[in-house]
Design a protein that fits this description.
382 residues, 30% strand, eight-stranded mixed beta sheet, alpha+beta
């Protein structure tokens, strides 16, 4: 039985929505200001306007890295036939919202009695772990789980390892490409969702043609041409096993084109000691309305998040912006990348930048740090 709809509250709420790829959409309501006398807040999770979970949240003012969660009320677990992932979806949505509302959180403490039926599944999935007599959810582990952001229907995960040779490169066989959306995440500081989907020639060719010939894109991306050129360009990337072309969207409005690639088979591979699962990326922002720092602070960490979620064996994400783009390199450094070295491609002098998986999740880089918002000049890399 569902609970009654929550009553209207005069306190302003942080409203958070889950992505829609991995589960039914859920909305989270969480007061912007706690009851400071008790350091308590009440969080509500709703599905289609109906409350399915209500939790008491306690974040200590003396230790902002920890929070305690206690279920006040929740809908029926649905019995033995209910999939565990569906039963805990409201909890996962609540944990995601709390991580964003309290960026200093390191772990969240749950009461075992609140989730008795799901506890073995939660522990097996790495969502909670025993810590003394308590059960805790480690924030850096939560954000490495695909449940909230990736489609539920995926290939074998992780993809079985089998090495093959491409030219001089000995590398793992890469998974076959999928169609449609591969990642979606709600961005609370924008009130919109960012999503990535695999590009499609029939759907995206004219848009990509316009973007690549735009005067604010062509000098950076250097792939201007006629429609036939861009048809061949996009089809070649769809056919290339080491590269995936993506269209990036905010609330289903396309704004940019992204290419993600396996570094070992890429032109970048020979310039450093590439590991089997290193990933790299190129990006152009085709719509000027989405070129500001607030937008970049959403799509850049989300793209890095997707790359780490898509392949759990990926430990490093690399890039090769032009060394002359000093501001762009500095903003990547503010976003967690390290500048490794400068080197020479045939067409440009580049800076090798690298983001470590451990740093991304330990430093909670899915949310921009203060001052990390970057100007529009970082919107294009090639």
């Amino acid at each position: 039985m569902h609970m009654k709809n929550p009553t209207t509250h005069s306190t302003p709420f942080l409203r958070h929505s889950t992505a829609t790829l991995g589960m039914q959409p859920l909305q989270v309501q969480y007061p912007c200001e706690p009851d400071h006398e008790r350091e308590l807040s009440v969080l509500r999770v709703l599905r289609d306007g109906v409350e399915v979970l209500r939790m008491q949240v306690q974040v200590s003012e003396t230790d902002a890295q920890q929070a305690r969660l206690h279920v006040l009320q929740k809908s029926s677990d649905g019995g033995a036939d209910t999939e565990q992932s569906a039963a805990v979806a409201p909890l996962l949505a609540a944990l995601e919202a709390l991580c964003l509302a309290h960026p200093d959180l390191v772990q969240l403490e749950l009461l075992a009695d609140d989730w008795h039926a799901q506890l073995p599944w939660l522990q097996q999935r790495g969502i909670v772990r025993a810590q003394g007599a308590q059960w805790v959810a480690q924030v850096s582990m939560l954000w490495q789980l695909p449940d909230l952001w990736l489609p539920t229907q995926r290939a074998a995960f992780p993809y079985p390892q089998h090495h093959v040779r491409t030219g001089a490169n000995w590398h793992p066989l890469r998974p076959a490409k999928v169609d449609g959306y591969v990642y979606e995440r709600f961005i609370p500081w924008l009130g919109q969702s960012v999503a990535f989907r695999v590009a499609n020639v029939a759907q995206d060719l004219e848009r990509l043609h316009r973007w690549m010939n735009a005067p604010y894109v062509a000098p950076f991306f250097q792939e201007e041409g006629d429609l036939a050129y861009h048809r061949n360009y996009l089809q070649a990337r769809l056919d290339d096993p080491h590269m995936v072309p993506l269209i990036a969207e905010f609330d289903r409005q396309p704004f940019g084109y992204m290419e993600i690639y396996w570094a070992k088979e890429n032109r970048l591979g020979p310039y450093y000691d590439a590991n089997d699962y290193d990933r790299g990326w190129h990006v152009l922002v085709g719509e000027l309305a989405y070129s500001g720092g607030a937008w970049i602070s959403a799509w850049l960490p989300s793209l890095m998040h997707y790359l780490f979620l898509d392949e759990p064996r990926t430990q490093r994400i690399v890039g090769e912006p032009a060394a002359s783009h000093v501001r762009q390199v500095r903003n990547l450094e503010r976003s967690g990348f390290a500048s490794i070295k400068d080197f020479d491609f045939a067409h440009k002098r580049a800076t090798l930048v690298m983001l470590l998986r451990e740093k991304y999740f330990a430093n909670r880089l899915w949310r921009p740090a203060s001052g990390a918002q970057s100007p529009a000049s970082t919107a294009q890399t090639s």
